[in-house]
Amino acid sequence: MTEFLPEGRRLAYKENTAALQSARTLMQAAVSGAILEASCTVCDAEHNMHVDLGCMKGIIPRSEGAIGIESGATRDIALISRVGKPVCFRITKIDETGSEPLAILSRKAAQEEADREYVSKLTPGDIIGARVTHLEQFGCFVDIGCGIASMIPIDAISVSRIVHPANRFSVGDDIFAVVKGRDQGHICLTHKELLGTWQQNAERFAVGETVPGIVRSIEDYGIFIELAPNLAGLAELKSGIKVGDCVCVYIKAIIPEKMKIKLIIVNCCDDGCVPLEAPYFITEGHIDRWVYSTPDAPKYIVTDFSE
Prior knowledge:
Layout lengths: L13 H6 L3 H10 L3 E8 L5 E4 L4 E4 L16 H4 L5 E10 L6 E5 H11 L9 E10 L2 E7 L2 E6 L20 E10 L2 E5 L7 H5 L7 E10 L2 E7 L2 E5 L10 E10 L4 E9 L20 E3 L10 E3 L3
Parallel strand pairs: 3-5, 13-15
Antiparallel strand pairs: 1-2, 1-4, 2-3, 4-5, 6-7, 6-9, 7-8, 9-10, 11-12, 11-14, 12-13, 14-15, 16-17
InterPro entries: NA-bd_OB-fold (IPR012340), Ribos_protein_bS1-like (IPR050437), S1_domain (IPR003029)
GO molecular function: mRNA binding; structural constituent of ribosome
Protein name: S1 RNA binding domain protein
């Protein structure tokens, strides 16, 4: 639903810029109940958010800054961290009692509408758009609409294991995710199911090719090298190699029935080249069940969204 985009996506829309042109167009937006977006310039000592509307100043009172602020379920850092960034809102009124008109705004009202009309209707398996807001060791936090937060745990980002979400994402990235379920009312997400099965990824490579990869782990029996976010191969141990290195690898064998790719490390890539980026294999609709494994593989990897 385009009306409930992650914050930052609406800023340049012509409908948004048109509504911010004058006091008259702002009043029209207030009457229609449109959700708008503009940049937060200051969060004052009382944690009211000041917004630059272009034609006039706006303010989001602390109590209207986000769902859960008044109850304490949402911490004030959720307001402070929006300084210098776009925020969505609905206009509640335009106060003309002072020397200059001031638009009174509510971000909470926009979030409540998004929750009621969009988020509450999401079901496990639904594919949605999101924007990365910050990264922690344990997962990637995203905005799924109007500043409503969700998280992708690190082990749900890709099949190929990473040490930190920053190995895969950057703040501000627009991504896709799959609804996994709900936890205490919050949407839980996963991501790896959109990056293709083992077979889909392996078909992008051929025996005899030399390609770039990233060293993801070093074990006693070999070195795991990521060729794509959902595909890794195993190379023999080689001195001077460390986790995170970009390496050039020769593809010695591709074995679908064992879900194995045998590699030979040719050399380190000093120019910092990265593996072929895997596109999203799915970006819309709904998934009931996703099977990563090949039919005869001894290890069965599946996500069942119908459970």
